[in-house]
Amino acid sequence: MSLTKINASAATLSKNRTEGAINSLSGMCATCVDGCVGMCEIGKSAYRGHEIIYPQPFGIITSACEKNYPVDLSHFTILGGVVGAWGIEANSDKTLFSNVNLETRIGKNKKIKLRMPTVIPGLGSTAIAKNNWEGLAIGAALSGIMLTIGENVCGMDPKSEIVKGKVKYSPELEWRVNLYKKWQHEGYGAIVVQSNVEDTNLGVHEYAISELDVDAVELKWGQGAKNIGGEVKIKDLVKAQLLKKRGYIVLPDPTDPYIIKDFEKGNFKEFERHSRVGMVTEEAFSKRVKELRNMGAKHVFLKTGAYRPVALAQALKFASKTEIDLLTVDAAGGGTGMSPWRMMNEWGVPGVELHSLLYKYCSNLANKGEYIPDIAISGGFSFEDQMMKGLALGAPYFKLIGMARAPLAAAMVGKTIGKKIDEGIVPVYIERFGDTPEEIFVTAPDLIRKFGKDFEKIPTGALGVYTYMERLHQGLRQIMAGCRKFSLEHISRDDIAALTNEASNISNIQYIMECDKKQVEKILNS
Question: Which of 255, 447, 507, 519 has its CA 20 to 30 A from that of 145?
């Protein structure tokens, strides 16, 4: 049985004619008929070609692969016991889930305080990120978690002032940074600015640190959705020409007279903007980290993707030698932008395998007394049980769970509810809770008490993110209390067990039937 859906997917707006009779190798209909108009991916490619490489409709969706990996987090279970408590007095009047402390501190020297072990990784120049930034930024700030501004924001900003190849002013980046900072309170959280090859060439980090007072910056090697640079689609000829002038790869060439005529005729409607693939060396990485610190960066991070094991080892070793503050490792399978659909399904190391290797490499360095940076892992996390399993899989090294598509979904839902309220057509399955934000969003009363009249300035997209994070906050505390772990540092690898021998072999987490064997024998034979 194929692990991947081939040739027909909602992501590419394609389907088979004979949906019940599909060849598992090619994904083609068992009987491909002359006269079919081409509803499948092959058929659409016959007339739209490279446009069908990417998920559609671009700009209003996020995407994740449909591949069924042989092992995932559902192949592990969370264990609980009846004796003792860690991080709190073993007293039934005190061991309440509401007393679990999810606060954490990230960084080597200067610490970043977080209310819960969560970071929203790089959401950059894509339309889906820009259109929901209000909800993401304010919601993340209210939740006391970190939020990362992804790649290409300055370069894509048509109003950016670029002098001699360096950005001097970007209203888009300034707006994103300041919106988060405006709602940040009680010293929790941080706004992080990411940089890829083009951003580094444009001096984005220099601008963010010197002009926007950004304390945390992140170097980007890649992500879990693709192993090439970032892409977006451009519907405006003038903007496509501007981006080419700024050094981006734009296809087809928006300055070619023949291409311009084809575009104006409507023969195609979108240009593709591509980023370059980075070339990593230890010397260059070390040099850049030093430069950022000399500029005034208080925290330096690295984000890497689902690359082969040797690249993961390099990321960890370089991060260790330069003593950066946070390493984020993103696993295969998902994306918030315009990643090639087949690439998203068929490249990269999946989460359980990648993060198990990461734990193994961390242990190797730790046993030699080498520095281990705080580590965040990401790749399809959306609920509290997955957070618990992820943290346990790499304990004590894994400190944060990165999630992007799920908070973005919460922001979009919250925003949509706000629009429906304004239009006076609240859907019936929501209307049963009320027809105002105060009635619909269960966290509203708490926020009203905290912010008073300023509550009215909080967009419903932010209410969606905050309320979703509140659910994760309580859900994770409940699970940890069941494991009798009352603060994050007490989470350990034996809090989970593998349900299959394959999952156990990959992760070195004990198979469920082998758990507690020595203790069991001691009890039964005493």
Answer: 507
Assess if residue 429 is contained within a domain: no
Residue range of the domain that includes 44: 1-53
Asked, for residue 368, whether it belongs to a domain, the answer is: no
Q: Residue type at 59?
A: G
In angstroms, the CA 266 to CA 101 distance is 58
DSSP H helices in 203-281: 204-211, 237-245, 257-265
Q: What is the CA angle 124-464-195, rounded to 5?
A: 15
Single pTM value for the model: 0.95
The answer to whether residue 488 sits within a structural domain is no
- pLDDT at residue 404 above 70? yes
pLDDT, tens only, 419-457? 999 999 999 999 999 999 999 999 999 999 999 999 999
Decide if 139 contacts 463 (C-beta within 8 A).
yes
Is residue 17 in some structural domain? yes
46/54 Cα distance (integer angstroms): 15
Q: How far apart are CA 304 and CA 420, in angstroms?
A: 39
User: For residues 276 and 198, what is the distance between their CA atoms, to the nearest angstrom?
Assistant: 7
- Structurally, the chain folds into a number of domains equal to 1
Q: Which helix (H) or strand (E) holds 501?
A: helix 501-507
